[in-house]
Amino acid sequence: MLSRFLSFGKKRFEELTQQEILALAISSEEDDARIYESYANSLREDYPDSAKIFDDMAAEEHEHRRWLIDMHREKFGETIPLIRREHVRGFYSRAPDWLSTPRGVDYLREQATQMEGQAARFYLAAVKRTEDASIRKLLGDLAEAEAGHIESASHAVDTHATADVQQDEAKTQQRQFLLTYIQPGLAGLMDGSVSTLAPIFATAFATQDTATTFLVGLAASVGAGISMGFTEAASDDGELTGRGSPIKRGLASGIMTTLGGLGHALPYLITDFWTATIIALVVVVIELWAIAWIQNRYMQTPFLRAALQVVLGGALVLAAGVLIGQG
Asked: What's the rounded Cα separation, in Å, for the pair 159 and 150?
């Protein structure tokens, strides 16, 4: 029902005239060329070899557009009807390039393969909808060209992105992921998990009221998350350090800080004080060992050293909170 509603006012592919099919093909080639150019620009600094692949593919799409415009000019004149993918019911769509480019070079290569396959299927279907021999020939040639692009793209990967190049790109991509998400997120998780221990457990042992303890834990976690998020975002715009978008880093830091504190605050939704406290302590142990594992896994910190630093530090903060609460 929803799909029918969304397609209301769109034209069925079977209803398109030969002129409209050419116009649709022209706009589709223009869009694909722009997408490939956007991919290339997003990769040029860090992945120049893969950027060259998308530059070549964009140039081919522009060449196809010129063929189609020449055919339209010959058959129907200079005025090209405005018809795009979104005007045709059931026609394949393209995700905005700003949704795709942050996902990495391998994802973009896979997207390009899907795009070429969709374009080839469109031209094969368009051939069946046209009667003019010259238009049919052009559309058939374009179907073969788009199908051949999949193989050409693979060949381009072998040419411009050899195994060594792809390995270097993978290292660069991993490093960027580390700088943009892992480091800020780990810092936030450590801050949220450790810094909220004292206020939460001090409140717990001072009041032995689980509802009050939960509210204090919630406030401390959310407040710390907002503070860490803004601090991370404002500390570095990423232009010179290459650490990536400050918004992404701020979100990673803020969200993980909040989660780190909420982990041992949520058990105090349980009304029984000792049950909630025991569960909260178990959660704390899990959090601290998880932080040590992340440090070992992504930051190459020896596990025993990471565990000693995190667990010892967390234990001291926890003990301080308990002593203050009991005092």
From this structure: 14
